[in-house]
Design brief:
The complex is a heterodimer. By secondary structure, chain A is of the alpha/beta class. An 8-stranded parallel beta barrel of chain A has the order 1-2-3-4-5-6-7-11, surrounded by 4 helices. In chain A, helix 3 crosses helix 4. Chain A is globular and about 55 Å long. Chain B is an alpha/beta fold. Chain B folds into 2 domains: 248 residues, TIM Barrel (Alpha-Beta Barrel), CATH 3.20.20.70; 66 residues, no CATH class. Chain B has an 8-stranded parallel β-barrel, surrounded by 6 helices. A 3-stranded antiparallel beta sheet of chain B has the order 8-9-10, with no helix packed on it. In chain B, strand 5, helix 5 and strand 6 form a beta-alpha-beta unit. Classes of the chains: A alpha/beta, B alpha/beta. Strand 8 of chain A pairs antiparallel with strand 11 of chain B. Chain A: Pathway: Cofactor biosynthesis; ubiquinone biosynthesis. Chain A: Its cofactor is [4Fe-4S] cluster. Chain A: One of its GO terms (molecular function) is metal ion binding. Chain A: It holds the Pfam family Peptidase_U32.
């Protein structure tokens, strides 16, 4: 059966919100939980030790826990923070940048790669597998066709490298040195007053015709539509995907997880779309189309 | 410091060499490089002619194969590396780990430069590429401040090349999927950002509109000058305000920083713009050649001549330039 994971929180939430979120997550039918700050080095509601404590608690609840690292590394301070996670061997580490790869490899710590790692072909996977890669995420802009081929080639090479697919949530699309939230408030990045805390789902960026294009979230830009591959789970099961990643949101996440859990068990009836939240759905990347597109999904069959 | 100039065509290559480029970079006529434009780039015959022209005049030639091959493209991308090798280029600019590995094993004698698309922003990331693929040089993404460049340079295991002038990419390169989200092509997959095939211009009662795959990127009132609809440089709404929410249409210009870049031990400055005309290349190359010569002479200290800035401003998007991320306050 497909495994379910909760990706790292991409937004900036208060300390208490984070603790509450994971207290709830501990009870949910997810197999893996990714913990840590992956977007902005200024977000420090939780210190590295807080994340490690949380990781131990969730592990005690039977969850597989992975520590995630920053996507854009810009300074020595960022590297110090990175080393804190890449130099322990209690938990697996998710590398979201080549800096993390280097530190993990040097310390002989096994690692997984997140969706921002530039992995587009089997040759790349082979190089990383030799150095400790245990599982990898498909870049969000790739779809079914490339993934199917990659999985096939890995099998031909006799490599056991489970694949994870970002399957639900706002897609992380870009990281910048500039903070777009601070820019909106006319604040310098270094003195941003942590305005992201006021936007637990980011800020909508619309065209002048009110089309939802992107979501601004500090230095990162996410999709304006919510990626939803619930209907594609049967596809993934057939082609040998290991894990389905759901990206945390601060409201109604439990309902999302439970729905995906039902679907992976083949329990959802054909006519029961997931309509929980107020953003248009998209799935274009999976079908090799512009990411924002919505392609009519297939009907559900029983028994994934 | 070496002056590295773009060559989108044979005339542009010759112009760059004639106007003082120490090195030029080019790509093949397909999506194996990050500037895939109709009518641009080189076939093997033209490339051979360009390389001969440059070599006879003491300039080096780099070949950019800096997009990311997917399984179906693997043989084609590998073939591009073979072509570059047999043409006798002086270095290959690569981003993909699989291709870097192939080039390092198959052609160990040809230097490998890490493309800006390789997303290396720290000395640890540079060490990863050095240890695994023995890269000689890396091009740094345009997201670092000068202080951060200093930090990277201090511990860098390889030569560094930084962007000096041209279009400003404000997202960490090699990891920006905005273009494939709105269209079906991105720099990583197809070597294209906001591809021309998806662009539509329309005169409307509200003004001139630019669209990308039907998405309204900008609308221009009378007297406003319209620019190419690169999606991150449009005007959008955030909480009811309409503004350049991501970035203004400006160009990067680091002329003022040359002495500092030199002091940091930066090996080369890179001019962006393989999509530009030979006339543009001539003006930019000549200006930067003057500046670098002036810097090397170093007699009375380096001063930026007003005429250089004037020339460069005239060649910039919207006539505006910025120090970009090099200047911390910009962020």
């Amino acid at each position: 059966m497909l495994k379910l994971s909760l990706g790292p929180i991409l937004w900036f939430w208060s300390r208490q919100t984070v603790f509450d979120f994971y207290a709830n997550a501990a009870e949910l039918p997810v197999d893996t939980i990714y913990l840590g700050e992956v977007v902005c080095s200024r977000r420090r509601e939780l210190k590295p030790d807080d994340w490690l404590d949380l990781a131990r608690d969730l592990k005690a609840c039977g969850k597989n826990v992975v520590l995630s690292t920053l996507t854009l590394i810009e300074s020595e301070a960022d590297l110090r923070r990175l080393r804190r996670f890449c130099e322990q061997d209690e938990f697996l580490v998710e590398a979201n940048d080549q800096s993390a790869l280097q530190v993990a490899i040097r310390n002989r710590i096994p690692f997984v790669t997140g969706p921002s790692m530039n992995i587009y072909n089997t040759a790349t996977l082979k190089i990383l597998a030799k150095q400790g890669l245990k599982e990898w995420n498909l870049p969000v802009e790739l779809g079914k066709e490339a993934l199917e081929q990659l999985i096939k080639e890995l099998q031909q090479e006799g490599l056991d490298l489970p694949a994870e697919v970002f399957s639900w949530g706002f897609l992380p699309l870009a990281w910048s040195s500039r903070c777009f939230t601070a820019r909106h408030y006319n604040l310098p990045k270094d003195n941003c007053e942590f305005r992201c805390l006021q936007h637990p789902d980011g800020m909508e960026l619309r065209s002048r015709e009110s089309q939802e294009l992107f979501r601004i979230n500090g230095i990162s830009t996410l999709s304006g539509s919510r990626y939803d591959l619930m209907r594609e789970l049967p596809d993934m099961g057939r082609m040998g995907v290991s894990t389905v990643r759901l990206s945390p949101e601060h409201l109604r996440m439990e309902a999302v997880v439970r729905r995906f859990d039902q679907v992976r068990r083949g329990e959802l009836p054909a006519t029961d779309p997931l309509q929980l939240v107020e953003a248009p759905p998209c799935n274009g990347y999976w079908y090799g189309r512009p990411g924002m597109d919505l392609v009519a999904g297939q009907q559900f069959k029983t028994g994934l | 410091m070496e002056l590295v100039c773009p060559a989108g065509s044979l005339p542009a290559l010759k112009t760059a060499v004639d106007n003082g480029a120490n090195a030029v970079y080019f790509g093949f006529k397909d999506s194996t490089n990050a500037r895939q434009f109709a009518g641009l780039n080189f076939n093997d015959k033209r490339a051979a002619e360009g390389i001969e022209y440059a070599h006879l005049r003491g300039a080096r030639v780099f070949c950019a194969i800096n997009t990311y091959p997917q399984p179906e493209g693997w043989e084609q991308w590998k073939g591009a590396v073979d072509r570059a090798a047999s043409l006798g280029v002086d270095a290959i600019i690569l981003a993909d780990m699989g291709l870097l590995d192939y080039a390092a094993n198959r052609y160990p004698h040809i230097p490998r430069h890490l493309s800006v698309q390789g997303s290396a922003t720290s000395h640890e990331a540079l060490s990863f590429y050095k240890d695994n693929f023995d890269i000689r040089r890396a091009v740094l993404p345009r997201v670092l401040s000068l202080d951060q460049v200093r930090g990277v340079a201090k511990h860098s295991p390889v030569e560094l090349e930084v962007f000096a002038f041209g279009s400003l990419c404000i997202m960490a390169e090699g990891r920006c999927y905005l273009s494939s989200y709105l269209t079906d092509e991105s720099p990583n997959t197809r070597g294209a950002c906001s591809p021309a095939k998806a662009v539509r211009w329309q005169e409307t009662p509200k003004g001139l509109e630019s669209r990308l795959n039907d998405v309204l990127i900008d609308r221009y009132g009378q007297g406003e000058s319209a620019g190419y609809p690169t999606l991150c440089k449009g005007r959008f709404q955030v909480e009811g305000h309409v503004y350049h929410a991501i970035e203004e249409p400006v160009s990067l210009n680091t002329l003022d920083l040359l002495p500092e870049l030199q002091a940091l031990g930066i090996s080369a400055v890179k001019i962006e713009g393989r999509q530009r005309s030979p006339a543009y290349i001539a003006d930019v190359a000549r200006t930067w050649r003057h500046a670098l010569d002036n810097l090397e002479a170093g007699t009375d200290g380096f001063t930026v001549e007003p005429q250089w800035q004037q020339t460069l401003a005239g060649l910039s998007e919207g006539g505006l330039t910025t120090l970009g991320a090099y200047h911390r306050k910009w962020k």
